[in-house]
Predict the structure.
Amino acid sequence: MNSVRSIFSRLEIDERLLGMILCLVGIWIGFHLLSDGRFITPRNLYNLSLQTASVAIMAIGMVLIIIIRQIDLSVGSMLGVTAMIIGVIQTFWLPQILGGGHPLIMVIAVVCGITIGAALGGLNGLMIGYLGVPSFVVTLGGLLIWRGCAWWVTQGQTVAPLDENFTLLGGGVYGTIGETASWICAIVAAVVIAFAAHRRRRRHISFGFPVRPAWAEIAVVVAQCALPLGFAAIMNAYEMPAVAAQKLAEAKGWDIPEGGIHIFMGIPIPVLILVALAIGVSLLLNKTRFGRYVFAMGGNLEAAERAGINVKRMTVWVFVLMGALVGVSAIVASARLQSAGNSIGQLDELRVIAAAVIGGCTLAGGAGTISGAILGAIVIQSLQSGMSLLGYDASLQNIVTGLVLVLAVYIDRLYQQRRPG
Amino acid sequence: MTAPLVEMRNISISFGGVRAVDDVSIDLQPGEVVGLLGHNGAGKSTLIKILSGAYQADKGEILIDGKVADIKSSRDARDHRIETIYQNLALADNLDACANLFLGREMTSMGLLDEPAMEAAARKVIGRLNPNFKKYHAPVSALSGGQRQSVAIARAVHFDARILIMDEPTAALGVQETKMVAELIQQLKREGIGIFLISHDLHDVFDLSDRLSVMKNGKLVGTVRTQDVTKDDVLGMIILGKQPGAAAA
């Protein structure tokens, strides 16, 4: 055990993250065996990534909320009301002004979605930061209020069908970036990872700080580069259903070879959105003053205040960010369903918080990672879709998800206690 | 003789009719340590919070280098290079030494935190104060009390404090740690920094201070040179509020 630990420490790998990845691989292999090889297939992993995207996007924001020792119970309901409003805008209002199918409809709906989400989040933040109402209370109220408002938008009527360009953002059959672009994205990502690692190492050496041994550095970079490349390979191995491929080829005017056309899906757009946001917010959290202050607030609010940090304003901005991410989730979730019903996003707040907590956020504040929260979201979604693949119903899925949540936090606690220092 | 680094003249402040500080004058020379003593509620913390900008005096004035200084906020105090080190409140436990050292004043390049530059600066300043300090990457919750004080003091020193206010600097520390803080204070004195040590416990500050100012019930009992008095003399001042006659400086 000690020698394993010393290897990790030489590699400077986050043991916790590695543990979660191993756990996830275990879950996947388990389901794969139980389902006679139906789980680890390009098709299932494609769907899994789509199903995870909405909750994972919100989990990014929840990490910051929990780090500053707050909570947001209203994200599911905010998602609901935002999705309903942008559904109405793109289905009832804009087609009358711009004409149906106008490309601007999607753009306006997206801008509205993010703006509405950010505004609702800002409202939460103002009440928590400046009026001093506890976040649990404010957002518990919001949970009820915004769900009610989601119903009021259309008196409970489901809005459908949504704009065609808009639904691409949900990652349906045509909602991917295609085979070539997927490879390009993955290769660019790998190059950036390698370049950043190289630059960081050079800078550390120039300051005379200790660095990893070269073999360890290379091993870590290779492992990190394998992630985008492997993901692209899997998504590119999923072949578009023949009928859809035929339609697409006809629409684009491509020649259809004998024996039918074979098109491979590639990376779905919602996953690309998720990755972009995760990278962006990770940079914000780990490389900027804003992020440093977020951690400081969770570690010692009074020290943060004494250091000249405007903690009230910071609180508002963290909730605005959460709201904006809820807006993005509302776009992705409704686009995937190609409709907006007033129950959309129901109970998402619990999945989002569970993802963040499984991913290593402690509710005492001051700690949490975005990569962990996203892994947490994947774990939860893997359990749910794995069990439905095996034919278990929703009640058992909930029981298992709940058990895993409690178990994950318990194991983490044991681990933290045993940790030296 | 040059003007004192700090002079607080005839300071008074009341809260709802209660005179927390009543016509108190104290001063501090460069490279000097003045212990400010008194029971809880004697007014020593209130007096020093006027210097650090948390409160504003009703009457009296503050002179820095002989010039009247208008200190309305902690930012003003910082502009006058006055830094306060609080007993337990100063550090964010989940952040490492570098992050705490620069909290609120981070170095950036192109909008992003410049971690290597901050680490280099932190190693320089903390290493100067405490050559044994090694744990630059551990969260400060993993540090000992003395190491935490090193970080807090380094934070003040790095931003060019000339006047340091230390609130109960050794209260929660063991023997070794207290020795470490005493060495830190000697180091700061050599650099010409003036230090106010606030404590309700005489034993914490007696050996560290050049002079002692004692307060009781909002009034200054007196200021004495540490070398001229015994601990019993000072205890008499704290408890009974009586001047040790000839020893008054």
Notes: The longest helix of chain B spans residues 175-190. Chain B touches chain A at residues 74-75, 86, 89-95, 99-100, 103-106, 108, 111-113, 116-117, 119-120, 138, 142 (CB under 8 Å). Chain B has one domain: 6-94+146-240.
